[in-house]
């Protein structure tokens, strides 16, 4: 047994570490965890039937292996109401617990745009029965994402527009300034609940205008001056 072969340490084949490309470099960003913020734009909270008041933010997770880069989105099984949610995501280069809001921006490696696909019918059923959202949110290939843009190339998030077009028509359009919990506050609040670390991805919530997709739809997403993402919805996933 050779210690230079990492596989030799493990009893079963070592799972691949999901990783995303970084714009402007050949290096990859290894993904440790994926967190998502719920209801972080007032107009979206209202469209989902909730009070947009500034209650403490809540979080859920997708799996790192649910990230989908450079491929079309296969329509998932078990749902007839799959919704897009365009979001700014953060990629962390460091972490910790109880991170101060004033120091939170220093933990950010980069940014990207992604879609938090949701099996809305399964989510509605889970909400009704008081069950977790896992099947609604953390399904296979549920999070198409752009490459990561280094924070050094992003002078500001202020007043940047966030947008999703379906088949050339704008469905979601807002401004990052409309987040209820701003980017440093999201990191600070999340770090009260979990110990964050390098490699963590945080989806920061979606603006109003979420809606269903059908096979054949073309989705084009953008965060102004920062990141773009385009893909199609293809035939059913194999599983
Ligand atoms: Mn979302």
Number of helices: 5
Mean pLDDT: 95
Helix residue percentage: 10-25%
> How do the strands of the widest beta sheet line up side by side?
4-3-15-8-9-12
Low-confidence stretches: none
Shape: globular
Strand content: 25-35%
What's the order of the H and E elements? EEEHEEEEEHEEHHEEEEHEEEE
Which class best fits the helix and strand makeup? alpha+beta
The number of distinct structural domains comes to: 1
Largest β-sheet summary? 6 strands, mixed
Instruction: Indicate the CATH topology.
Output: Fumarylacetoacetate hydrolase, domain 2
Report the end-to-end length measured between terminal Cα atoms: 37 Å
Q: Name the ligand types.
A: manganese (II) ion
Radius of gyration (CA) equals 18 Å
Total strand count, please? 18
Find the CATH superfamily.
Fumarylacetoacetase-like, C-terminal domain
If classified by CATH, what would the architecture be?
Alpha-Beta Complex
Which CATH class applies here?
A: Alpha Beta
Structure description:
- With 239 residues, the chain is an alpha+beta fold.
- The chain has a single domain (14-234), classed as Fumarylacetoacetate hydrolase, domain 2 (Alpha-Beta Complex).
- The chain has five helices and 18 strands.
- The protein has helices at residues 42-47, 101-104, 120-129, 134-137, 183-193, and strands at residues 19-21, 28-30, 33-37, 59-62, 67-69, 73-74, 82-84, 86-92, 108-115, 118-119, 143-145, 149-150, 161-166, 169-175, 200-203, 211-212, 218-223, 227-234.
- The strands form five sheets. The chain has a six-stranded mixed beta sheet with strand order 4-3-15-8-9-12, covered by helices on one side. A five-stranded mixed beta sheet has the order 6-18-17-13-14, with no helix packed on it. The chain has a three-stranded antiparallel beta sheet with strand order 10-7-16.
- β17 (218-223) and β18 (227-234) form a beta hairpin.
- The longest helix has 11 residues, at 183-193.
- It is globular.
